[in-house]
Structures are given as C-alpha cells and as structure tokens.
Amino acid sequence: MSEKAIRVLLVDDHAVVREGYRTLLTKHEGLTVIGEACDAASAYQCYKDMQPDVVIMDISMPGRGGIDAIEHIRKLDADARILVFTMHGGAMYALQAFRAGARGYVTKSSPPDLLVNAVHDVAEGRVTICPEISEVLALQQVQEEGTGLQRLSPREFEIFRMILHAKSTDDIAAALNVSRKTVANYHYSIKSKLGVASDIELLYFGLRQGLVGPWSTPLG
User: Fold this and answer.
1) Domains present along the chain, CATH in parentheses
2) Phi, psi at residue 117, to the nearest 5°?
3) What is the mean pLDDT of the chain?
C-alpha cells in the first residue's frame, strides 16, 4: 500500500460532510478519494464498480443503514476494508459494526489526524479503534450488563434501529429489499431476544440503552 495512493470511497448522506472528508484526506500525500456515495445502495454499487482500498462509512443513513451496508459489501468481497466514521459513540454500535465486518471505528468527535491514521491502518490490514470507543468497549466488558443486545445479529440490530426511528414494516422491507413477512419475523425475533412483549417496551428499551433520543417519533 505504501508504494501507491490509497484509494478511498466516502459514504455519508450529507454532501457537505463528504466534502469536508475529501478536503481533509486529499491534503495528505498517499490518499486519494475516488468516489462518494450517499446511501447503502449507491455505496454497494460504487464499491462493485471502483474496488476502493478503503471505504469510510457512516452508520446513520436513510433507508438501509451503514451496519447493514457493511455486511452487504463484505458478502460481495470478504476482503473489503471498511472504516466506520460516525457520531455514534456507544459500545453496541461499534460491536455490531465489527460483527458486520468493519475493520475500524472512529467517532466524528475525534481529531482529524486520527481519521487519517485510521485510513492507513485499515488499508494495511490493521484493526483500529479510537480511544473513546476503546474506553466504552472496555467498560462494557467489565460491567457485563447482559441486556440482550449482544445477542442481536447485525441485520437484527439494523432493523431494531429502524424500528426505533419509526420506520414502518413496508419502509424497512423496501430499504432492505426483503418481504414484509421477513421483516415481521425479524421484528418478533428482536423482541424475543431483548425480552420485551410490545413495541412500546421496545422503544423504552432503546431509550434506556441510549440508542434513540427522547425527541424521536413514538412507535405506532
């Protein structure tokens, strides 16, 4: 990797944010941005067409989110090197991202140079985690809360996240390109694994775990 520029694909639903990443990365010799994507579907297609060395992926995007996008790309290419760059500083987001196949996790509150270094680490095949996430992961290991979230698969976690953000069964089915019945089966499995009986309890669970803010639209 050191003998040629690291080819980067940027995935974020905000054009201004992507422009900021591009400006930061292209200031550093050895890094070149070859493409941008605003959602999971375009990220998959760009990866397929461009074969970048590193993907910088946000988690929160319209429709299919970043965690599901990571898993989708890794099914296409098991060697895909994906670095999550997100505002989410919770341990469970990081754990699910790594389960889906991410090789690095950096929060947007991190210093710019940390993102640049993380791109190089991931390109070289190393796993990289920002100090903030290392701390919350270590804390979770010590506490061993056993909330049930650890039992969710990346796809279940992604659907759980969409449910918490008031997405309907039809919305989720369309975003993930699956049937309504498949979404309903996942929905039941999620509630079963988390030990809740209703969508209201599911929402309260998400609130307690910090996965959704109190300002979000309630579930119907």
Assistant:
1) 6-141 (3.40.50.2300), 149-208 (1.10.10.10)
2) -65, -35
3) 86
